[in-house]
Amino acid sequence: MGEPSIHILLVEHNEAHFELIRQAYSSRKDDVRLTVAVDLKEARNILLETSPDIVIADYRLNDGKGAELLRKSNGNSDYPIIIMVNQGDEQAIADVIQAGAFDHLVKSEDILSDIPHIVSRSLREWENLNKLGEIEKELKKSVEKCKLMVENTSEEALKFSEEKYKAVIEQTADNIFIVDLKTRRLIDANTALQKLLGYTHEEMLQFKLTDFIAHPPDDIEDKISNIVKEGSYFMPERLYRKKNDELVDVEVSVNLISYKDGKALCVISRDITERKLSEEKLYESEKQLRDFLDNANDLIQMVAPDGRFIYVNSSWLETLGYTREELKELTLFDIIHPDSLNHCQELFQKIMTGESLGFIEALFVANDGSVINVEGSVSCRFEDGKPIHTRGIFRDVTARRQVEAELFESEERFRLLAENVPGVIYLCRNDERYTMLYLNDWVEVVTGYPKEDFLSDKISFVDLYHPEDAVQIPLDVEITLTKREPFHLAYRIKHKNGEWRWIEEHGTAVYEKDGDQVMFLEGFLSDITDRRRAEEEQFKLIEQLRQAQEMESIGHLASMVSHDFNNLLTPIMGYTDLALLKIHREDPLFKDLNVIQETALRAKELTQKLLAFSRKQELDIKELNIAELISSFRKMLDGVIRGDIEVVVCSDPSHGSVNADPTQIDQVLMNLVVNAQDAMPKGGKLTIETANVILDEGFAKMLPKVQPGRYVMIRVTDTGHGMDARTTRLVFDPFFTTKERGKGTGLGLSTVYGIVKQHNGYIWVDSKPGQGTSFRIYLPRVDQIPDMITVLPKSRIGIYGNETILLVERDKNVRELAVNILETYGYKVIQAKGAEEAVKLAEQYKLSIHLLLTCVVMPKMNGVELFNELASEYPEMKVLYMSGYTDEVVAHYDVLEKGVHLLKKPFSIIGLTERVREALNG
Questions:
Q1: What is the CA radius of gyration of the chain?
Q2: pLDDT in tens, 111-121
Q3: I need a surface site. Which of 6, 188, 500, 705 has the fewest CB within 10 A?
Q4: Measured between alpha carbons, how far is 612 from 758 in angstroms, rounded to an integer?
Q5: Under 8 Å between Cβ of 881 and 859
Q6: Torsion angle of the four alpha carbons 854, 857, 863, 869, in this order, in degrees rounded to the nearest 10
Q7: Quick one: 869 exposed, middle or buried, by C-beta within 10 A (0-12, 13-18, 19+)?
Q8: Is the confidence at residue 612, as pLDDT, over 80?
Q9: pLDDT, position 830
Q10: How confident is the model over 782-787, as a mean pLDDT?
Q11: How many CA atoms lie within 13 A of 226 on its CB side?
C-alpha cells in the first residue's frame, strides 16, 4: 500500500479537540495521515524529520504560542500553516495575521468537525499560489529568452529560422501571439492561446489586436507608439474574451520584435484567474479582520519600538477622543498619565526583550484631559530577533473602577453598620459545625466568647446549644432549606458566664451559581432573653386571667348546682334525724338510718369543698393543728382513694400549728392525693407526713424568694411513674396537664400553688421518671400558742321553745322538714311558699310573730326586703336567714355582716334548732 495522499501535522494539547478532528476524518474516505504534537518542542522535532502537507496549530500551547512556528520559518515554508485561536481572542488574531499565517480558525465544535473541508480548500489554494509563482517565473524566463533571441539573431537569419521560432513558442505554456505592427492583425498564435480562448489557429489569424481584448483601452494607439519607442510594455491585469463569451483574467507583457520583413508585437499573456480569486479572498479576509478590529469594543493598538503609533482601532479613537492625524504627532508615552508613566515605560522595555507580562493596568489621558483606566495585555512581534512592533489590547474599566470604589465605600459603610448593629451578623459554611467565615464584634456580647474563637473553630455555636434544642435546630434548618425558604429559629445557648440565653435567628442560604447546592448560610442572631421572659410573664398573666374567667364561670355554675344540691340534702338529713329520734337504738333500722346520716354529712362536706374551690371570698383563717387536720382528712380518704393504694400517715400532734383556712388546706391535700392516685394506675403507696422545719439564711440564698423562719412541712409522696425535668418545671402552670385530652383541665396543681402562696407558704416538687413524686408544702408556723379557753358544751335543753315562727321556703320538702322539726321542739310555725304569701299571712295574723325564718334568695322580693317590709308591723320580730348558695352569692344581700344570723343548707335538726334559739335570744 502506497503513502497517503495528505499528511497533516496537528499541534494541539487538548485531547477533546484532537478527537473531534479524528472523528471528522473517520467518516470520510480521504487518505490522510494525522500526526499529533502536544507542544512546540515536539512539533519542531517532527518538522526536522518530515515535511507535512499542512500544519494546523493551536495558538496557545503549554510551552508557547503556535505562531512561533511561523516566526521560525520567517513566513517561508513548503507547507501552509493554519493557526487556531479561541473565540473572542482578538489579540491572538492580530498576532497570527502579523506573523504571516496562511489562515486562522476560530475554534468551535462546528469548525473542528469541518476540518477535512478546510484542509482540502487550503491545499488547493496553496497549490494555486505555488503555480502562480511558477508561472510568473516562467513568464519572466520566456520574455528574457525572446529578447535574447531577437538581440542575438540577424534579421536575415531569423527569416530562415521560422520553423525553429515556431517550435519555441509552441513549447512554452504561456499564451503567445504575434501582431503585425502595420495592420494590427494577428499573424501567429500558439496552441496555448488557442486552448485558452477556444479558437482554431485559422480563426485566430482573422482577428485584429483588439478583437478578443475585452474593454480595450481608449489610448491603445498611444500605448503601441510607446512600445515602439521603449521596446516593451507590461500590463498587470487585462481581460480576454473567450469564444463562449466568458472573460478570463490575464497578465500581459508586450515586446517589439523583428518579424519577416518588418517589425511586429510579441504579446505574451498568462491566466491569473486563480491568483485573482486568492487575492480577492485574501482581501476579503483582511477586510473582515479590519472590520472586526475596528468594531471591537476593546482598544487595540500597534506601537513601534520608539513609541509611535502604527495602528489603532475605532474604539481606541472614540474612547480617547484623538484623530488619526493627531496621533501622527504623538507617541504612546504622551497619552499615559504621569502617575503610571514610569511604570509603563519599565513594562515597555521588558516587552521589547520578549518578556511575557500577563495582565497590565495603566492610566491613559484622553484628548479632553479626562483619565481613562485601562487593563489588558501587550506582546511584541519579532523578525530576525529584532522587535518590530508591540501589540496591545486594552479594555476601558473606568466605569468598573468607579463601581469598585463605590462598592468599597458601600462595604465600608456596611462594615460600620455590621459592627454597630445590636446583634450578630454571620456568614458560615453549611457543615455540621456551621464553621464561621465572618462575624461582627457583637458576638462577644451575645455569647461572652471572642470573635476569634469562632473564626478559628476553637468554639462553635453548636457547642453552646441547649441539649433540648441541639437536635431540633439542624432539622429545622434543613427542612426550610429544602423548601428554598429563609429559616427563623428560637433556641437557647449557654453564655460564657454559665447563664442560658434565648437566641432568635433569621437566616438564608447562599446557593452555588445556577445550582441547588447550598454553599453558605448567612443571617442575624439577637439575644431575646429579656423579651422572652417578658412574653412568658405576659403569657402567665393572660393564663391567669383566662383561669380567673373560667373559675368565675365554674363558681357561678357551682353556686347554682350547690343550691339545688343543698335543698336535696336538707330533707335527707332532717328526716333521717327525725327518724332516729323516733326509734329505739336496738331497732334494726337505727343502724341503717345512721349510715344514711353519715353519708349525707359526707356529701355535705364534699359540697362545701367544691364551693371552696370556686368561690371568691376572704379566707376563713383559723389556728390549726396540722396533725389533727390531716387525721380528719385521712378518714375522708376511705371513700375517695382506690383500694389498691396503701395510705400511710406519719403526723405527730406535737407538730406546730399554722394560721390557715381548713377548707382550703383540705382542698390542697385532696388535689395532691388525686394526682398521686392517677400516677399509680397499678396501685402503690401514698405517704402523708408532717414535720417542724427551719428554713435558714443559707436556704434562702439558694432560693431568693424564700423568707427564713419556722415552718410546718406537709409532704405528700407517691410511688408512681414520676415526671421528667420539663414536666416538673411546668407542673404548676395553669392548664398544663399530663393527662389525656378530656381527662384533666390542668387547674388542680395551679390551684394548689395559689392557695399555698395565699397562705404565705412555699411548695416544691421532686420527681424522676420511674421513681415517684414528692410534693413539699411549707406553711409559716405559729410560734405563740394562745392559752387554752375552756368552752363548755351547749345545753341541748336550750333548743326548745314556744314562740311563733313565720317560715318562708320555696322548696316543699325543705319547708315541710323545717315545720316538722320546729313543731317537734315546741314552736308554732306559719309557713309560706314565697315572700308575697308571707306578707299576706302576716297581715292576717293577729298575734305576735317572734321570728322570721326565710330564704335569702327569692324571686320578686328577697329575704332581706321581706324582713324590712314586715319590720314596721312587727318591730320586735327577729330574723334568721337561710341559704343554699355560696357566700359569694349571698354576700350581695349583706347577710354575712356581723350580728346577722344565717343558717346554711343543708342543716340538721340540732343545727336548725340551735340557730333558731340563738336568733330568738339575740
A1: 62
A2: 887 888 888 88
A3: 705
A4: 14
A5: no
A6: -140
A7: middle
A8: no
A9: 94
A10: 51
A11: 8
Contact predicate 669/688, CB 8 Å: yes
For residues 429-449, average pLDDT: 89
Q: Which of 253, 261, 19 shows the shortest CA–CA distance to 158?
A: 261
| Helix 626-637 with 662-678: angle, nearest 10 deg | 50
The span from the CA of 531 to the CA of 699, in Å, is 30
Say if CB 765 and CB 717 are below 8 A apart.
Answer: no
The model's pLDDT over 333-357, given as tens digits with 9 standing for 90+, comes to 998 999 889 988 888 888 888 887 7
Q: Which pTM value belongs to this model?
A: 0.33
Residue 809 class from Cβ within 10 Å (0-12 exposed, 13-18 middle, 19+ buried)?
A: buried
pLDDT over threshold 70, residue 412 = no
How far apart, in whole angstroms, are the C-alpha atoms of residue 453 and residue 465? 16
What torsion, rounded to 10 degrees, do the Cα atoms 356, 359, 364, 370 define?
A: 180
How far apart are alpha carbons 575 and 578 in whole angstroms? 5
For residue 27, give the C-alpha cell. Answer: 467518516
Please give the Cα distance from 115 to 23 (Å, whole number). 10
Instruction: Report yes or no: 401 and 409 within 8 Å, Cβ to Cβ.
Output: no
Backbone angle region of 383, left / alpha / beta, with phi > 0 → left and psi within -120 to 50 → alpha: beta
Give me the torsion for CA of 613, 619, 623, 628, rounded to 10°.
Answer: -10
Average pLDDT value for the chain = 80
- 321 vs 158: CA distance, rounded Å: 71
Question: Which three cell numbers, joined as nine digits, stand for 402?
Answer: 468607579
Query: Between 218 and 912, whose confidence is greater?
Result: 912
Write the burial class of residue 635 (CB in 10 Å: 0-12 exposed, 13-18 middle, 19+ buried): exposed
Q: What is the DSSP letter of 392?
A: E
pLDDT, tens only, 91-141: 777 777 777 788 888 888 778 878 888 888 888 878 766 765 666 566 666
pLDDT band at 655 (very low <50, low <70, confident <90, very high): confident
Q: Which residue has the cell 495582565?
A: 359
pLDDT band, residue 717 (cuts 50/70/90): very high
According to DSSP, residue 806 is labeled E
Distance CA 434, CA 428 (A): 6
The single-letter DSSP state of residue 790 is -
Distance CA 439, CA 424 (A): 7
∠ CA 302-305-311, rounded to 5°: 20
Contact 673, 686 (CB under 8 A): yes
Secondary structure of 643-684 as H, E, C letters? CCEEEEEECCCCCCEEEECHHHHHHHHHHHHHHHHHCCCCCE
Please determine, for residue 214, whether its predicted confidence score (pLDDT) is greater than 80: yes
The dihedral formed by the CA atoms of 25, 30, 31 and 37, expressed in degrees to the nearest 10: -30
Cβ 670 vs Cβ 767: under 8 Å: no
- Amino acid of residue 171: Q
Phi and psi angles of residue 332, each rounded to the nearest 5 degrees, phi first: -55, -40
pLDDT at 654 over 80: no
